[in-house]
Amino acid sequence: MATEHYATHESSDSVKRKGLHEGPRNHFLAFALSLLLTLLAFIAIIFQNVLETWFLLSFIILLAILQAVIQAVFWMHLKDRGHLQQRIFFTGGAFIALTAIIMAVYWVWW
Amino acid sequence: MSAVDYSHAHGGQLPPEPENATLEGRNKILGFWMFLGAESVLFGTLFATFLALRSQVLDGPTEDELYKLVTVAIATFILLTSSMTSVLAIQAMHRHDTKGIQLWLGITVLFGLAFLGLEVYEFFAYVEEGHHFTGSAYSSAFYTLVGFHGAHVLFGVIWIGLIIAQLSKKGLTVVTAPKVYVAGLYWHFVDLVWVFIFTVVYLMGKVG
Hints:
The structure holds two protein chains of two kinds.
Chain A: H1 2-11, H2 13-19, H3 25-46, H4 53-75, H5 84-109
Helix pairs in contact in A: 3-4
Chain B: H1 23-53, H2 63-66, H3 69-94, H4 98-128, H5 137-170, H6 176-207
């Protein structure tokens, strides 16, 4: 079994080199972007007296979602070839989690 | 079977991606993604509870009085950096560099321990200020959510520590490689949950 699967991997080697072994460059890019987004969120909170509350809240939540997507896509390899099932499970989980959050907040406060 | 049997391969005989080389390895990674999907739901419900109850402080301190942004910022950068070092461990694995994997995983574990130390210090300070687990709906929701994440970090530290030890004993094989990969995924997920904790709990708590 193992050998057969390895053989199929070999045959698609040229495709794989593009998709998978891209080296650490993109990973460092994801790290730099994460650092930047984290810094932006903290800076936004420091300037909370200048900014409107609704804008501040949506801004930092947007930053968090953006950072989560960047890390999932680059660090957790969701962008890579052959990760469709992984995407389905993770998006499914995130969708149910978001539904639970909206439900709880709506249920208690409106 | 004319080709090489990779289940006993060591060093140079390993395939380029040892974590994907066997069906068992690929199933392990796929199964782990199902687990991560379920974990998202679990943390989602804890976030939901926290968001619904965050203003119910009774006579305890409010969020704005409690949180120290400096500590949170340091914890955030520690965990973010540890996520990056676990990426470097996977990169070392793709070079079949067992010592490199152990080095970077070791650094990841040290960052994890530093994060836990900060969290313990933070919780001690909160209890001093009258923020107890059973103090109010808010305090219970806070400690359950943040503490659950801390428990995940602790579990990850122990798990990755054991993987480092097992790599010393068994080396990098198609059996141990999926474990390294899956532990890396777990660590990224724990960092990803923290992104939402520092935003939703700490930063939003400061905004009020």
